[in-house]
Specification:
73% of the residues lie in helices and 2% in strands. With 303 residues, it is mainly α. It has a two-stranded antiparallel ribbon. Helix 7 (107-123) crosses helix 10 (188-201), helix 7 crosses helix 12 and helix 8 packs antiparallel against helix 9. It starts with a helix and ends with a helix.
């Protein structure tokens, strides 16, 4: 019971930090286009603190979820689709929940579309089977250790805004690492994947466990509390056109996440710390998809 309460507190803390700092890859790409790449850099390096969770897990003899997986062209296609959907949605996986917890109800259409996308791909699975390459080497975690400590010292010696950004992002990576030790499918994309499989196959064994629902509620609770604390909560009822647009974006994100073996949350906090080739390809093509999607959205708005 103590372990469960502790894990739920970790999930709530992740939600609070994600909402407070405005974690969003779409925002990161948008700021990078304007010549401000630091926010995106902090997102991409948020998982560098996962080595602490790995060290604790190894010390306690726990199974480690950080595994490298081979890349494939389908991974790239999935990342590109996810990025396009995120840009059209104006938010990636985590930021979709951020905005929903601020009262933007149109994001519920994104979640529904995500589930539909997962289910659609289950009917037409791609002809590939990614190969597991094993656990990362101690050298890779040594690189993470040096990088995270170097970034921490650099941020600590800088101004308040930079300290808040980097310590919040690396804090999310640290807390997420411990959550992965408890439940490897705790991120929102993992929950939606399991929920989609259960709805599609009508298999009681595939339904998310009660702890999965508790973790998601704790994550949302942290986001709602941060939104309330910063006075960002404002209930917004979507128009039909906006709801349909987010539904389509959600379908793209769902299909993309299924092909890429996870949404951007799993890629950033699980695959990248493991230096997984699949994760590196997925994140790279997600960024490309977001960039193309932002240009497409700007073109549609101007027309």
């Amino acid at each position: 019971m103590v372990l469960l309460v502790s894990v739920l507190c970790l999930a709530a803390a992740v939600g609070y930090l994600a909402q407070s700092i405005g974690l969003c890859m779409v925002r990161g790409v948008h700021e990078s286009i304007k010549g401000k790449p630091e926010f995106l850099s902090a997102i991409l390096l948020s998982g560098t603190t996962a080595w602490i969770a790995v060290f604790v897990g190894q010390s306690l003899g726990l199974p480690l979820p950080f595994r490298a997986v081979s890349a494939d062209s389908w991974i790239a296609v999935g990342g590109l689709l996810f990025g396009l959907g995120s840009a059209l949605n104006q938010g990636c996986g985590v930021s979709t929940l951020n905005r929903l917890s601020r009262g933007q109800l149109q994001m519920s259409a994104t979640l529904l579309g995500w589930i539909l996308g997962w289910c659609a791909l289950a009917h037409w699975p791609p002809p590939y089977e990614p190969a597991e390459l094993g656990s990362p080497s101690p050298l890779s975690y040594g690189v993470h250790t040096a990088l995270s400590l170097g970034l921490g010292v650099w941020a600590l010696r800088s101004h308040n805004a930079r300290r808040k950004l980097w310590f919040s992002m690396m804090g999310i990576g640290l807390l997420a690492g411990f959550l992965f030790l408890f439940n490897s499918s705790w991120p929102p994309s993992g929950f939606l994947r399991n929920l989609s499989a259960a709805l599609l196959h009508q298999d009681e064994l595939r339904w998310p466990a009660p702890t999965d629902y508790a973790l998601l509620l704790a994550l949302l609770g942290g986001m709602v509390f941060a939104a309330w604390k910063t006075r960002q909560f404002q209930l917004q009822l979507p128009k039909l056109q906006a709801w349909l647009a987010h539904l389509v974006a959600g379908v793209l994100m769902g299909v993309g996440a299924a092909l890429a073996l996870g949404g951007n949350d799993s890629q950033l906090l699980l695959a990248l710390p493991a230096l997984s080739p699949a994760g590196l390809v997925a994140i790279s093509t997600m960024l490309l998809g977001i960039l193309l999607g932002l240009k497409l959205r700007r073109h549609l708005v101007e027309d």
